[in-house]
Amino acid sequence: MALLDLQNNSFLQAHFNSNERDLLSFYRLLEPSDFPEIRIVALRTFTVFGSTHIYEQTFSQMKALKSSERSSLTDRHLHVSLRACTTDFIPNIKKMTGKVQAQVSH
To answer: Where along the chain do its domains lie?
Structure first.
């Protein structure tokens, strides 16, 4: 219902169209009492992606992961893969592999 109200609000449509689609200022205009769910989703979305670079990087990685060769990925696998692709963490491979004992072939 809130989505229909949002789509039919001429003031919000005019603001959205006149500000070169600046989503942050658009979502700030939404009244918390009128559109609480939409504001919550928008807030969560903007806090997940702190910058445009991370946002674009994530969708580029998702496109690569969801290629035709990997179309059978589950949502859980995609989520874990995206986290690995977009993190700044650099693993210490030598330290991790130094603790593993190699298996000898029979």
So the answer is: 1-66
